[in-house]
Amino acid sequence: MSLSPVARSSTFTQSLLLAAVGVTALGQTLVFTLLPSLGRATGLAEIQVGLIISCSSLAFALASPVWGYLSELYGRRPILIIGLSGYATGTLLFALVFQAGLAGWVSGGVLVALLVAARAR
Predict the structure, then answer these.
(1) CA–CA distance, 39 with 17 (Å, rounded to integer)
(2) What is the pLDDT of residue 69?
(3) DSSP string, the chain
(4) Backbone phi, then psi, for 3, in 5-degree steps?
(5) CA-to-CA distance for 33 and 56, rounded, in angstroms?
(6) Per-residue buried b or exposed e for 78-117, using 16+ beta carbons within 10 Å of the residue's own CB
(7) 25: exposed, middle or buried (C-beta count within 10 Å: 0-12, 13-18, 19+)?
(8) pTM for the whole structure
């Protein structure tokens, strides 16, 4: 038995959404797993690494109601695309800032501020 075009489209959309959520969760897991080692490699104190994690969690918690309101206003799909694009861009920026820290281009408080800004994006 074949699925109707509408059911096929709905199944594809749900599969795509599930994959996007899975990739985002994988990215979060990798960041939280690698952050302590990268922090030590760049000379950050444990409290600075904790500050990065805490600030990004706070930003996500504060932004969630705003994104929920926007998704009600403009629809789920455009907000999901914006959110996932922002997450990908922020993760790339976070990696680039850490690379700059590992290369010795930035360090200390400036590095922490840039990492917090990249994660809270």
Answers:
(1) 32
(2) 95
(3) -PPPHHHHHHHHHHHHHHHHHHHHHHHHHHHHHHHHHHHHHTT--HHHHHHHHHHHHHHHHHHHHHHHHHHHHH-HHHHHHHHHHHHHHHHHHHHHHHHHHHTTSS-HHHHHHHHHHHH--
(4) -80, 150
(5) 15
(6) ebbeebeeebeebbebbeebbebbeeeebeeeebbebbbb
(7) exposed
(8) 0.81
Six token digits for residue 7: 């059911």
**What are the pLDDT digits (tens) for 32-81?**
898 999 999 999 999 999 999 899 889 888 998 999 999 999 988 888 88
- Burial class from Cβ neighbours inside 10 Å (0-12, 13-18, 19+) for residue 20 reads middle
Question: In Å, how far from its chain's centre is CA 7?
Answer: 31
